Amino acid sequence: MQTAVVTGASSGLGREFVNQIYKKEKLDSIWVIARRENRLQEIAEKYRGIIRPIPLDLTKEESFSSLKAALEEEKPDIRILVNDAGFGKIGNYNQIYGQVNDDMIDLNCKALVKMTLLCLPYMQKGARILEISSSSAFQPLPAMNMYASTKAFVLSYSRGLRWELFERGIHVTAVCPYWIKDTEFIPISKDTANGNAVKHFLLASTAATVAKRALWFSKYNFPVATTGVVSFIQRLSAKIIPRELLSALWQVIRQL
Ligand SMILES: NC(=O)c1ccc[n+]([C@@H]2O[C@H](COP(=O)([O-])OP(=O)(O)OC[C@H]3O[C@@H](n4cnc5c(N)ncnc54)[C@H](OP(=O)(O)O)[C@@H]3O)[C@@H](O)[C@H]2O)c1
Q1: pTM of the model
Q2: Which domains does the chain have, with CATH numbers?
Q3: Which of 188, 172, 228 is CA-nearest to residue 8?
């Protein structure tokens, strides 16, 4: 069965990936993963017969055992893996710490790696992996430091993995969007003791645009997908402008 696996499918960008993969890729099945089962069931009802809802908390070790068992049983031919599940939190080191930090690292980094390694044995030449990073991966981001650091890991991991998979002919693309306005990410990020440390989200994109462009970049095997003008400028600036200056600029911009 030609299959796509999408984590973070219950909302926002992940859900949009499911919509667009369903419409464009004509696969036999799409495995959708997130914690909220009711949301996954809604998608299953919308695209009847194609969707396999798999409610899992990807910060929990046991989730990967049950996924491994499902993969061993079904032996799907995974054509597309989208590692989208992730979250951020706004605040400094003394506001964002403990369990929330652990969860951010576990979901944004560890779960993404575990999902990738679990799915790889079921992927063949021409299969595509989209690792959802962020334009925050291009530079340090005080007041969202842990989040940006996890996404820098994703970017670096994806770029290296791409070369390790070169001989197998599997595409790996790190997707690096700037803010996306129509998902749950911004409200969840701001829901902290110091959520106003980032005051605005100007020029934010939409999930539909980001998913469409990311799938295009992955199809043509780009290593990094900057899915809009702002993320492209941010990527370029990080190559030209010294990091300390970029961080200082961000400290001003976020408080305007
Ligand atoms: N929105 C932005 O501005 C922006 C910009 C750059 C990059 N990104 C990245 O884009 C990705 C998608 O974010 P989004 O904007 O679409 O936000 P979102 O609407 O909050 O989606 C996050 C998804 O992750 C899932 N998730 C959260 N915790 C999970 C857990 N423990 N186990 C399994 N699934 C979990 C959520 O589902 P459940 O709650 O049902 O588990 C949800 O489906 C993230 O990796 C984010 O870092 C977002």
Answers
A1: 0.98
A2: 2-253 (3.40.50.720)
A3: 188
